[in-house]
Design a protein that fits this description.
single chain; alpha+beta; two-stranded antiparallel sheet; 7 strands
Length: 139
């Protein structure tokens, strides 16, 4: 990869994301990952509309999370996404940090595979539409 592709977003844990203990419910961390993944895909100019327009769907087929410390109501977060693999699948690593202290709260990754939209066939090599974007020099 000629350039390390990464992005970050800043979020605040909203009231509707917390449980009775005031801690972000574990399922919402995937939503925080998604916000950072969207920023990364936009940086690549291959966000979901561009994926669709290129004729490919990219379903998430695996998601792994490691909860280190809880995120709490009102806490400001910095969520990072970094592209690890792209030749045969998208593997994106994530980290969630407390935006003030820098303490890591969560880490994980997702795997996405290319599926040709018309035939619904799994692609074992990433399509040219992705490769050209990832392999271009940094904009």
């Amino acid at each position: 990869m000629p350039h390390e592709w990464q992005a970050e977003v800043h979020l605040e844990v909203p009231f509707h994301d917390v449980d009775v203990m005031g801690v972000a419910w574990h399922g919402h961390y995937v939503k925080y990952f998604e916000a950072a993944r969207g920023a990364l895909l936009r940086a690549l100019d291959y966000d979901y509309p561009q994926m669709r327009d290129s004729g490919y769907l990219w379903p998430v087929v695996e998601c792994q999370l490691k909860y280190v410390r809880p995120a709490r109501y009102g806490q400001k977060l910095r969520v990072t996404a970094r592209l690890l693999e792209y030749e045969n699948r998208l593997k994106i690593a994530y980290e969630i940090f407390d935006a003030t202290s820098g303490e890591r709260l969560t880490r994980g990754y997702t795997l996405q595979v290319a599926v040709e939209a018309a035939s619904e066939e799994l692609q074992f090599v990433s399509p040219r539409a992705l490769l050209e974007r990832v392999e271009r020099p940094e904009a």
